Amino acid sequence: MQAAVILKLIGQFVMLFSVTLLPPVVIDLIYQEGAAHNFFYSYLFLLGVGFLLYFPVRNKKSDLRLRDGFVVAVLFWLVLGVAGALPFYTYEEMDISLVDALFESISGLTTTGATVLVGLDNLPHSILFYRQELQWLGGMGIIVLAVAVMPMLGVGGMQLYKTETPGPIKDNKLTPRIAETAKALWYIYLGLTVTCALAYWLAGMTFFDAVAHSFSTVSNGGFSTHDGSVNYFDNWLIEWVAIVFMLLGGINFALHFTVVRTKSLWPYLRDSEFRFYAAMLIVVFLLSTYVLYTQSILHDFPLAFREAIFQTVSITTTSGFVTTDYSTWPVFIPVLLIFSSFIGGCAGSTGGGIKVIRILLLIKQGQREVMRLIHPSAKVTVKIGKQPVKDSVIDAVWGFFAAYVALFTLMMLILMFTGLDQVTAFSAVAATMNNLGPGLGEVSANYASLSDFNKLLLCFSMLLGRLEIFTLLVLFMPAFWRK
Question: Are 110 and 131 in contact (CB under 8 A)?
């Protein structure tokens, strides 16, 4: 383990992250709400801490090994989760505990969107902007950003990139150099964000709300600047803008890159994962609309259509925006939506969940086993599109799924042991592990009522989901630390 090099990188990350506290300073100076000093002092503190970590080992140079990449990735999320909590905790008007501040920070950075805050409409614009900014930075991943903009991370960048990016197949690069790949992803991400902000603005949002919501829409985060979320605006144009960009955020950004490069939409239609993603959304939407309309919940079909499509896209892509309290709908729909969030977005997207490609591979592997029973001597190959998939990838997907189920069950049982009812415990773990945000039961609105222990456990659940389990879990294996 190269401790000096790891310390150097963490110091650089903290210094880089400290710069993100300056935009809220500017926001507060514009609105004159008295929170600028809180962010500026936090900026100076984090800049100093990062410099103290970096300076003693600034001359250490060595290639990162894959094992070092895992340590850096996990430390990055832990350290920045704590660093991100600083402005929340030190702002006296909010009067929240350290655990609540940590929960809000990690929820933002992991794009979960679960919150412990109430009264958002009364908070300073700088605090609201900062929450949205955390989600935007976490959406594409700050490690990917660092690989893109910090040349000193060019060495060993692939190790960091592979531990950070979601999905079972991580060896494909869009460009020959990994730094150029990271830049390409961030250009697409930035372009979608700017376009989304302009669309929100034209649809009727204020400029501040448009920018803030574009951050949490493209990142599939779900934080809002209002307690009523998107329902605050009661504007169908705004809802359609959100639907479009939540969908785009849930698609593999490498696929977006291919579409931009080829100037053709055919790569979408030829991609097996995208077709499965679209089909799943259509099925969930049609079932939700049918139940809402036929069970006389919403007598107006256009309204049933509008509510069903928004909640379907928001929950399935793990964004977590809401236009209504869907937990009060016929129980079939909330449970269907929560289960759809287990599938989540595509690999390489900002969506959470198990990922569409893994579910597709599990289905195809199941089909292969059935074919083997029928034709024991046949050699059946699992393919995505026309490309055969290595057995090692399928084994990794099965391992991920097994670990996911085991950890999900364990955390749910722990929450129930602490006194939470089954619905709340199930949905809280699902919402945090899938980086979704809103759950059912006690956590349908926010997580403020949970105990500190439960909040910390759910912070761990968010990190598991964001780091796709194994990146975090591998650090608990004794073999990992053996030389």
Answer: no
